[in-house]
Amino acid sequence: MPMEAPALVLLARQLGEHSLAWFAGVLAVSVLGAGMACRALKRRRIRRSSSEEPDEPRLAAGLAIGFLSILGAASLVAYLASKLGDGRLLGLADQALADAVGDHVPWAALVAFSWLTHLGDAELLAPVCFVVALLLWRRAHHGLALGWVMALGGIVLLNPALKRIFARARPLHDHGLALETSFSFPSGHSAGAIVSYGMLLYLALRLLPARWHVPTAMAAAAAIVTIASSRVFLQVHFASDVAAGLLTGLAWLLVCVGSLEYARHRKRRAAR
């Protein structure tokens, strides 16, 4: 519709002009929300631990929710990709947001994001993957070690494959703080961040004392939001690239966590 495109592009430009304020708000909401959700989950576990409700209904419901979430994420990624052609509405909004960010974000903020974005670099996460897997294996958590390696290894294979399928060019910038040569859609840093830090949160919930659960959830949320946002601020990705990266990463994370929980359930049931 002729009036729809200018409205969305104008909204994207407004968001770009006030992007630092929006980032601060989203970061605060995400961190507080993660902490509150973790506390609610902990209370629910305590209440259920004293009941005799069987595990099977909860497991089936969890797997069903995970499966539907994966389908939803895949559908949204496909929808985003369908709207990114030349002159399409979402592509125009992406470009307007990127241009506004480039015009209004201070240099000091860009430098800060150029450092923070390295929290999602493969060069950092690869040693983390090895160290965590080694610690898990040495403490006889062999299933968790395998799941951890498969989660990070899987997204390393999945994201480049998707990039080659969609073959979208990256936005242009001249600040020189971040250089990327691969395709843009979906964002590998965003997908890797939600899988890596999401899996670290899952391991913390499984293995660490309860007093560490809420702080770990809040730290994981802060890392994911900051890494994903940094890609837009540095103009190495469009906003839709980041959204698609988060969706694909979340889908893969649900597969990995769901598989680990199913395996744990089967092992517990066999032991009984």
From TrEMBL:
Keywords: Membrane, Transmembrane, Transmembrane helix. Signal peptide: none annotated. Residues 141-257 form the Phosphatidic acid phosphatase type 2/haloperoxidase domain. The chain crosses the membrane at residues 20-38, 59-81, 115-137, 144-162, 182-205, 217-236, 242-263. It comes from the Bacteria. InterPro entries: PAP2/HPO, PAP2/HPO_sf. This is Phosphatase PAP2 family protein. It comes from Variovorax beijingensis.
